[in-house]
Design brief:
The complex is a heterodimer of chains A (about 475) and B (about 1000). Chain A is mainly alpha-helical. Chain A is built from 19 helices and 2 strands. In chain A, helix 11 runs antiparallel to helix 16. The N and C termini of chain A lie far apart (about 55 Å). In chain B, about 50% of the residues lie in helices and about 10% in strands. The longest helix of chain B is centred in the middle third of the chain and has 33 residues. Chain B has about 1000 residues and is an alpha/beta fold. Classes of the chains: A mainly alpha (about 475), B alpha/beta (about 1000). The interface between A and B is large, with 104 and 102 residues.
């Protein structure tokens, strides 16, 4: 077996291992009854660990592998064959496959994906361990662990995917598990509202990823990163896109990132996602899922370095997110929301680094921040004990905590705007949702009229106005 | 509305709001957690009535679901006899009722034991059209019942039919015929339609009847956000503008900014609030209710219903209004203001919606009732083995009577009767056990030897096991139970916290100021410690706030990220190792000096000071405290050479509810300092002399040792060991050995409740496990707190000694023979009964309806403003106990057993009105054990009556361990006939 054969097997284990027990577990639960906590947790922790070990092995394989001319570690472009292959002959002149489509099952192992894969493994293993005790005796224990396994696989797929098409699969599965865990407590309306908000945001912005894939196919004839971005070590790829193509692809990717990474102005779902168990909130919204958008933009580094417009857009959006989030976090008096906005602040910074093409800085920032925030969210219930301890330790000193109330006009305005999330929901509501609802009502009316005109029986009325104008989320 | 009416309304409102307040939670901010009866304000009515009132007003349950009781009946926890007795008592109250074809008692019995009715019309229709349940016998039917039903039906058919050789109907045919017959009888019995129920309630509730979504959620979120920001003084780094002008002003200020994007309801609310900004909150409420067009008699209901979705927050507002100084908070709030704002916002939203209310379709209720009656009767008849013959003989009149009976015996009533049966079983079990102990105790030889060790514990139920294991080691080990503040109400200033904290029951105010300070020789260590601690605190605060901010967050990230990564892996995978490691490091960085306590009486400010007289007075005062505590415990003679006093505390991480696990008698703090202070006083020669003058002779060679028991880890620490006279060193060694054994066995006993604990018989492994629980970040159940508490015994230890009570009992020592006047008894009951009841009832209600009374699962909890926990980012504040504390609790009212004469107890009840009210209204149940006749009396109706149930003798075991090993459920009491352990005798 040669080097790349081994890498192929290991990489497959990283992605497939956590996914493998999902279907069997569901089958068992559906036929023989829900497995015990112990069985569920053992199986899921075992596969998460297997994936983590494979991930380390994969990193080693990549590190020990061949190097390119510049001395960097060459990326491993691992292909497993095509899922769909609508082949067309190679174009005689520019070499592209006009009108062809190939869905390649391929993984790409380079510095970026190895780092992300290791991070994913480590955090998932930590949370799996944490959850065994934390979720003990909870009604949805089994459901939680199945979703955790699904997420582990999806996230590995997302970061190791060799093409945008495959990344999209991981991206969607991450979104699905995220939504289902926000709605983990099924009997209360709050979590369901939070889950729906997250889902609507995800689904809307995911269009960006699809558009990007289409554009990439159009421009490069393939959405394989290795084909489209060249085969150099990340981030020093070379591409042959026109600046317009690069810009368009990058902006589409940015749209996708806006949803997943809770960037301005679509970040309000993030604090509302804190309805699930603390442990899953930590993993998704402190650790991994929230950084998926950043990863996506990092992956597109070769394109971004060719497009000034897109770089400026990314950087600007980063600054905007960081500033709005930090202002909002100052008004939040509950621990988890404060942490959610703090997360958005740092993600904003990462976008700025990307806009400035400081790829490695952004990646390092991502890793450090994911660890810190996961820990902080896991320790969110400690806030009271911590505050008491601090107060006790400082009790002997005169320590005036700033309770002065600023009351200038500007501050009042800033406070209000920050408290209301910069009114983004409301603007969206008025500019987008209300017209959409009105439009669909109009269409509904027209359809009814036509039906009546052709003599169809009056269908049972479904009034879209059951949604009150005030209630989107 | 005329101005006259308005004035009248305003006057009424103050009273109304007090009534609304009665059902609001009274829990203080979480840091000051105290156990409280959630229905505290209704304690002036009978227990069951209060529950019913709360059910009607709030819709919260006061008993377990029927299925839970059925399971308890099935596994024998509810005895058959108690079940019959409870039902008989209900029948007695119900009076005579006729019902046919099954008699009333049978109907009730079947309705209790089986689930009769579908819950909705839809379910009825589903069962009828989609299942074969109308054609086969009900699953719960016994074989005999089915047989009787088939036989009766066939008999009837053969009587009706002229044809002699008709075919016998089989089971499925009979069942189908029964269903048909009941249907047609119901149609005949139907006496016109019921009047359609009018929909009462707020606009929001009416809207909810016809719409899937609830637009008022936006109002809730707006209110929560502003209220939390207003009350918060430490989490958010910005304070809300205009915060000093009151809550209403803040709301107006928020509504007034950002005009462009204001919603219509916000605009309307702003105008109303602004135009009424000079009016009192009461006036605003009255006007608002008038605008809602609510008739005056429904005001309370309307206010209550509008507040209900934010019940937790409303309660917090109410608590902070009544005690605004909590944790030095400055913001003023009042319930009236909150209600006023709430009503204004609610109406504004309602008007914006302008929805067409759809009328509930006429007669829907009547149709639903008929369908449900049909199924209920159908199943009832099958269970009772009634065939067509009996059914037709009873006729429509009988059927109607049965329906009336079932309606009266509705679900809340059924639950109440079942609950009564459960408590009866419990009372019988406990009194039976204690009778058994009393009988055997008489037979035992009175002991003449001097006790080897005497240990005083808190009366807390969690101390029961360690006491038992300490006693099981030797006949010469004695234990006592006292209220955990050891009779010293003190204001304590610890070495590390210069803020004074009250360590005494909340009804008392501290009389003693106790300060812990480093010894002279260790002053340098102390200063170093203080510097390190304050540096650490500053660093941590800087990191916490910094990591959330824009620039500092960025700057700190490289360091914090690396530390966080290491900590994540270590702390989740190796909690014990991590805790020990950090402990070692912090010991090294933050050294611990030796300390001493200084106990001083809190001076009476109205009197002139005279140092010498003050000193004498102080000694007298201390002597009185020590004397009273020892007398109350009945420890007035035969002192051992070593007497230890163990307060208790609980240590845990990552738990907002940590205060709920501490010593209730010390106001949710540690009892250790109290024990230490007590020992200090009791060893003081001057105090000893004063005690002797009071007639309490403590031998010179008796030494008191204070200490603390950690209920989470079962760790025991002893204080001031360096003061111990050399003559006692050997004894100390063996005492420590005995305590070591006791705590390990206690840990072994209680880990059987933890599913993640190792299945082990090794006490060492058990200890390792409970220690790990206390430092595990992911552990939502560091210990189970007062889970399963059910009994309180006020009497000598001999009444319960050797009884395996499974950590369910509060044990307060009291010796009637040294208290002829009953003063000590009065003090003990006045202190212990209310505290026990509030703990017990907090657990009770949090367990029976965890989502409504309790705070639900801990998992989505989110600390807000350091006041409490909410669910997610904008849910209501959750109060009382989370399911992780109560899930294994068996909810029943506290059974207080007092070992004293009936007359003495009656005297106490006549003097202590509050205790009497608790007993008379059934918030606790009272039994009295006469010390001489060994006869129990039980409170029944409104009097103590002799308890005459049959007695069964208890099984005996050799040791507690023999009884509890391999079992995971709560266990019935057994008698432990201990044989001294060989290890101890060797020691």
């Amino acid at each position: 077996m040669n080097h790349s054969e081994i890498a192929r097997i290991i990489a497959a284990i990283v992605v497939v291992a956590p996914l493998a027990p999902v279907l069997p577990l569901l089958l068992v639960a559906g036929t023989l009854g829900v497995p015990s906590e112990k069985r569920t947790a053992t199986v899921v922790r075992a596969v998460v660990w297997l994936s983590a070990l494979a991930s380390v092995a994969l990193a080693w394989t990549w590190f020990a592998g061949p190097r390119d001319v510049l001395g960097g570690h060459s990326p491993l472009d691992l292909r497993y064959g095509a899922l769909v292959d609508l082949g067309a002959p190679e174009h005689p002149i520019h070499g592209r496959h006009e009108g062809a489509y190939r869905f390649e099952l391929g993984l790409l192992v380079d510095g970026l994906s190895v780092t992300m894969s290791l991070l994913t493994s480590a955090l998932t293993a930590v949370i799996a361990r944490f959850s065994v005790r934390y979720l003990h005796r909870e009604e949805g224990f089994f459901r939680y662990f199945v979703l955790l396994a699904l997420f582990a696989a999806a996230m590995q797929l997302l970061v190791l995917a060799g093409s945008l098409d495959l990344l999209f699969v991981g991206w969607e599965l991450v979104g699905l598990s995220s939504m289902l865990l926000i709605g983990f407590f099924r009997l209360r309306p709050g979590p369901q509202r939070g889950a729906i908000t997250a889902m609507v945001t995800y689904r809307t912005t995911d269009i960006g990823l699809l558009i990007a894939a289409v554009l990439l196919h159009h421009a490069a004839g393939s959405s394989e990163f290795a084909d489209a971005f060249g085969r150099g070590a990340w981030p020093q790829h070379s591409t042959h896109f026109s600046p317009t193509e690069s810009t368009l692809v990058c902006l589409s990717l940015l749209l996708a990132a806006v949803g997943k990474s809770a960037l301005f102005p679509l970040g309000t779902w993030l604090p509302r996602a804190m309805e699930g168990p603390t442990s899953s909130s930590a993993l998704f919204y402190g650790g991994l899922s929230v950084h998926a958008g950043v990863y996506l933009l990092l992956r597109a580094a070769p394109l971004l370095s060719q497009s000034l417009v897109a770089s400026i857009a990314v950087g600007t959006l980063g600054v905007l997110t960081a500033v709005t989030a930090t202002l909002t976090s100052r008004t939040r008096s509950d621990v988890k929301s404060a942490l959610a906005y703090a997360t958005m602040t740092q993600v904003g910074w990462m976008l700025l680094w990307i806009g400035l093409h400081l790829w490695t800085v952004a990646l390092a920032h991502l890793v450090a921040h994911a660890c810190l925030r996961t820990l902080q969210l896991l320790r969110a219930p400690s806030a009271l004990q911590d505050a008491e301890a601090i107060r006790a330790a400082l009790s002997s000193e005169r320590d005036a905590v700033g309770t002065t109330t600023e009351n200038s006009r500007l501050f009042r305005w800033a406070y209000r705007v920050a408290l209301e999330d910069f009114f983004v929901d409301r603007v969206m509501q008025r500019a987008l949702i209300r017209p959409l609802v009105a439009l669909s009502a109009r269409f509904d009316a027209i359809e009814l009229r036509i039906e009546r005109w052709v003599g169809a029986e009056k269908p049972p009325s479904v009034t879209p106005s059951r949604t009150s104008p005030n209630e989107v989320h | 509305m005329s101005s006259h009416a308005s004035v009248h309304g305003e006057a009424q409102l103050a009273t109304l709001l007090e009534e609304v307040r009665t059902l609001l939670p009274r829990q203080a901010p979480l840091g000051d957690f105290l156990h409280r009866n959630v229905l505290e304000a209704l304690e002036d009515r009978p227990f069951h009535d209060a529950i019913e009132d709360a059910r009607v007003r709030l819709g919260f349950d006061g008993y377990l679901p029927l299925s839970a009781y059925r399971a308890l009946l099935h596994d024998g926890t509810i005895t058959a006899r108690a079940f019959s007795d409870a039902l008989a008592e209900y029948d007695l109250r119900r009076g005579d009722t006729w019902s046919a074809p099954l008699d009333a008692r049978t109907v009730e019995r079947l309705a209790l034991a089986h689930e009769l009715g579908p819950a909705s019309l839809a379910e009825c229709e589903f069962l009828r059209t989609e299942t074969d349940w109308t054609r086969r016998a009900f699953a719960g039917c016994s074989h005999d019942a089915v047989g009787a039903m088939v036989a009766d039906t066939n008999r009837w058919i053969s009587m009706q039919s002229s044809d002699k050789d008709h075919r016998e109907c089989d089971e499925s045919r009979v069942v189908a015929m029964l269903f048909e017959a009941l249907g047609s009888m119901l149609d005949r019995a139907a006496s016109g339609d019921d009047a359609p129920e009018s929909l009462v309630g707020t606009a929001r509730e009416k809207y909810a009847h016809t719409h899937a979504l609830d637009p008022w959620v936006a109002v809730d979120q707006f209110l929560i956000r502003i209220l939390a920001a207003y009350l918060d003084e430490s989490v958010a780094s910005w304070t809300i503008p205009g915060g000093n002008d009151g809550f209403r002003a803040v709301v107006v200020a928020q509504l007034s900014t950002g005009k462009l994007l204001r919603d219509r309801w916000e605009e309307a609310a702003r105008e109303t609030l602004k135009s009424a900004s000079r009016d009192s909150a009461h006036k605003l409420i009255a006007e608002e209710l008038a605008r809602w067009a609510v008739p005056a008699r429904e005001w309370r209901t309307t206010i209550e219903r509008s507040v209900l979705p934010l019940r937790g927050w409303a309660g917090m507002v109410s608590v902070l209004e009544q005690d605004p100084t909590h944790q030095g908070r400055q913001r003023k709030v009042s319930l009236a203001e909150f209600v006023a704002v709430r009503l204004v916002l609610d109406r504004a939203m309602g008007e914006q919606l302008k929805q067409q209310e759809r009328e509930a379709s006429q007669g829907a209720c009547a149709r639903e009732k008929r369908a449900m009656d049909h199924w209920r009767l159908f199943r009832l008849m099958q269970l009772g083995g009634v065939g067509l013959g009996q059914l037709y003989r009873a006729g429509s009149a009988g059927i109607s009577a049965t329906i009336v009976l079932l309606d009266r015996f509705d679900e809340p009533t059924r639950r109440r009767v079942f609950h009564d049966a459960m408590e009866r079983s419990h009372v019988w079990r406990m009194l039976n056990a204690m009778t058994d102990v009393a009988q055997h105790h008489d037979a035992a030889q009175p002991r003449r030897e001097r006790p080897r060790f005497q240990a005083m514990f808190c009366l807390d139920d969690r101390e029961e096991s360690i006491r038992r294991h300490f006693e099981e080691q030797s006949e010469l080990h004695e234990t006592f139970g006292v209220a955990g503040f050891f009779g010293i109400p003190m204001a304590y200033e610890s070495l590390d916290d210069s803020r004074v904290a009250a360590h005494c029951p909340p009804v008392l105010s501290p009389t003693q100021h106790v300060r812990e300070s480093a010894t002279e020789s260790d002053m340098g260590v102390h200063l170093r410690r203080q510097r390190s601690l304050s540096l650490a605190a500053r660093t941590q605060r800087g990191m916490d706030h910094g990591s959330r901010s824009l620039l500092r967050g960025l700057a700190l990230l490289p360091i914090t990220g690396v530390f966080a990564a290491a900590r994540l892996v270590l702390q989740t995978h190796f909690p014990s190792l991590f805790a020990n490691g950090t402990h070692l490091i912090s010991r090294w960085l933050v050294p611990v000096p030796r300390t001493r306590l200084a106990v001083n009486a809190i001076p009476n400010p109205t009197r002139a000071t005279d140092t010498a007289a003050d000193h004498d007075e102080s000694v007298e005062h201390s002597a009185k405290r020590v004397h009273d505590a020892l007398e109350a415990a009945g420890l007035t003679h035969s002192f051992a050479r070593l007497v230890i006093l163990l307060g208790h505390r609980a240590s845990m991480v990552n738990n907002p509810h940590a205060a709920a696990y501490q010593c209730a008698a010390c106001a949710g703090r540690s009892g250790g300092p109290n024990a230490r202070a007590f020992a200090l006083l009791a060893n003081d020669p001057e105090v000893r002399a004063a005690l002797a003058r009071r007639g309490l002779m403590i031998p010179e060679d008796t030494w008191f040792l204070g200490g603390c028991h950690n209920t989470t880890t079962d760790g025991v620490t002893l204080d001031d060991l360096d003061q111990l006279p050399d003559t006692h060193t050997l004894e100390l060694k063996s005492l420590q050995k005995c305590l070591e054994i006791a705590r390990a066995r206690s840990a072994l006993e209680r880990i059987r409740y933890f599913e993640h604990a190792p299945k082990t018989r090794s006490p060492a492994r058990a200890l390792a496990h409970v220690e790990e629980r206390s430092v595990d970040l992911s552990q939502a159940r560091p210990e189970l707190g007062h889970s399963n508490n059910a009994l309180a015994v006020i009497g000598r230890r001999s009444v319960t000694r050797g009884l395996f009570l499974d950590r369910r009992a509060f044990l307060l020592s009291y010796d009637a023979s040294v208290d002829p006047e009953g003063d000590v008894l009065e003090r003990s009951m006045a202190a212990a009964v209310p505290v026990g009841a509030s703990i017990n009832l907090d657990y009770y209600f949090s367990r029976v309806d965890p989502q409504s009374w309790g705070s639900g699962s801990k998992l989505p909890h989110n600390l807000v403003a350091l006041l409490g926990v909410q669910e997610g980012a904008s849910g209501d504040l959750r109060v009382a106990l989370p399911t992780q504390m109560t899930e294994q609790h068996e909810p029943q009212r506290l059974l207080v057993v007092v070992e004293a004469s009936v007359d003495a107890v009656r005297r106490v009840l006549s003097r202590q009105a509050y205790v009497r009210a608790l007993v008379a209204h059934g918030w606790v149940r009272l039994a009295v054990l006469d010390p001489h006749t060994k006869q129990f009396s039980l409170w029944h109706g409104d009097e103590l009556v002799p308890w005459t149930d049959e007695i069964e003798s208890l099984p005996t075991v050799q040791s507690s361990e023999e009884h509890h090993q391999h079992r995971t459920v709560s266990l019935a009491p057994v008698r432990v006939v201990s044989r001294p352990s060989p290890r101890v005798t060797a020691a």
